[in-house]
Each structure stands twice: as C-alpha cells, then as structure tokens.
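WARN retry 2 of 3 for item q-0093 after timeout on previous attempt; input resubmitted unchanged.
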Amino acid sequence: MNSFKSILITVTVIFLIAGIADAAKKKQAAEKPKKAVAESNVPAVKPNPPTAEPNAPAADANLSSAVTVTVNGVKITEGQINKVLQAKMEQLASRIPPNMKDQYRQQVRKRIVEVMTIEELLAQKEKEKNIVASPAEVNEQISKQMTKDNLTIDDFKSLLKAYGTDFSEYQKDMRKKIMFENLMEDQFNSKVVKPTDEQVKTYYDQNIQQFQEPEKIHTKHILIRPEDSNDPNQAKAKAKAKAKAEDILKKLKAGADFNDMAKQYSACPSSKQGGDLGTQPKGTFVPEFEKAAYALKPGQMTDVVETQFGFHIIKLIEHANANTVSFAQSKDMIAQLLTNEQKKTIVENYIEQIKKTADIKFTNPADGFADVPKAVAPVRPSSDKTEPNSKK
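OK item q-0093 returned
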C-alpha cells in the first residue's frame, strides 16, 4: 500500500521545491526513454545525488544587495534568493533536460520569491504569537522520523545528502514545520471536521485503483563489478569478477552470513544495509536480475547472475502477489487523507488572508503572486523506498 501512503503527507507548512522537483522529474520522464537497471546507485531509498549546474550565472555584488520584495518593511534581497536558487538548481540538475534548464531556472526562481515572501509573513505571525520551537522539540521529531523509517543517524545523514541538503538544514526545516503546526493549531481545531464513515467508504469505492498493489519482491544482493581494464573487451576483468562471485557463493553455501558478505564484498551502495534493495514492484529490475529473483522462494538465493552491471548473488526475502487492500485496512488512512485535504484548504485560505492584510511590495511586478501558493509538506526522505535509477 506504499503508493497510497505516499499521499498521506501531513499538510502543515509552506516549503519550496517539492512541486518543482516533481514537475521536473515528470517532464524528464515524458521526454526521455526509461532506463532499466538491476541495482541502484543507492540502497533503494535515495534519489540520484545532485550534480553541480554548469554555467550558472555568477553572483554580482550590486545585484545581490538589490531588494526584490519587502514584507511589512522586512527586505528580501536578490542575494538571499540567489543563494537558495543555486542550491535548488544543483539539486535538480540531473533531473532537468538540458534544453529546459533556463525555463526551469525561471520557474524555480519565481517559486522561491513566492515562498520566501510567505515564509516571512508566517515568521512574523509566529513572532507576534510568541511561537517558538526548542532544540529538544526539533530533535525529538527528527528521532521519531528516523525510527519510523528504521534509519540510523548515519543513514539519515547520507539520505539527506543524496537529497541535496544536510542535517543542520533539515533541523531548520523541522523547526519551521513545528512552529507552523503551532501557528495553525487553533485554525485546525476550530475548522477541521472528522470525516464520516460514509465519506470514507465513498472515497474508497471511487478510488479503488489506489488500493491495488502490484506483485513485488523484497531482495538482497551482492554485486561484484569487473575492474576497469585496458582490454577493450574486458574479458579478463569479467572472468576475474565472476570467479570472485563464485568464491563468495561457495562461502555462502557453506554457511557464511549474507549480510556480512554483502558488507564486505558488494560494490553496490546497498552493501551498507547488507545488500538490502527493499521491496520493489515487478518491472523494477533489468530482465536478467528479475527473472532470477522471481524464480526463487523466500530464503533461497541464486547462483551467480550476470547483468550489464556485473555479477550478482541474489537472495529473496519475500514475494508478495498482486492484491487489493481491503476497506477495513484502508479506512483509517483514508480518514487521515480526507482530514489532510481539509487542512490543505484551511492553510491556503489562511495564507491568502494574511497576504491581503500585509504590506507586500515587489520591486519587479513580474515577481508578484501568480496564484495562491499551495501548501506542501517539507522536503524530506519518503517512507516509500523506490530505486531512483529503476525501470519505474
């Protein structure tokens, strides 16, 4: 039911890049053939690490100090905007088609100006109401998130790095989230109405496709890559890698621990998790990998399997057939979803209200609000673990 869980994000705070990043990925997917791979660059939980954007405009001292917008007398400069813009464009660089980079840069900048303006408005409201979030509160919420996703602090920091951010930045974002939740608490308490059983059942019946889960498998693997060689056919390197994989397989059959062997020998970043690739739907992996994995029974492992990535030893942890999640299993999540939709509307209305009563001046009218910015969840690692370089 992972696909359904992904839409059950608590709508609590205005953040920048979720919408733009999603649009960039969808645009790229529509214009580019999908590539099938057998293993991810990261252990089935992370997107491709960002790459630096080439030929980004150089910062100009005078431009940096130029005021882009004032919010009740508080100035937001082009330098502040450009700092965020550069970071976000680097984060998105590998997901944007080269011929659309300028267009996306303009879109991202526009969104940054809107969000920074609204965040300043919200910060002023929080200050007015003496709303704060202590370091202890922030760390408690982060600990809960790590526990929920079964991550160690090192895993969590690596995951954040793959998203183009770091732990200190995430702490700041979590602080904003907590403060915004506190700001909106009275609004939610007075306006959110508990969904009725009839509303919940109607949603289930009308959106049954959301509750259909594909056939999927949970696998671990050990990957041995051929070493780089001057031999154009790499025949010797491939033979050496295969021999190494065969030797590891013998040790496994003799009783060696799969997790330990993966950590010691596997060339895939999933080695840190004992080779764990998580649960993935059918069609995720390249044909050679998938055919071998789906032929296994839980607890079994393959012989050495060759793909374009090297030589794999695959272990099947679990095989789940396609199914439809029942209403009884889904009703609590549906109720939460319908509640979150109410919160989303309340947030949008609240922001529109404080915009109307604020003194907001854009230096360039083109930077003004095009529409009511949507409420989105903070950018964070998702509990849905999908391989970024997969066929999906």
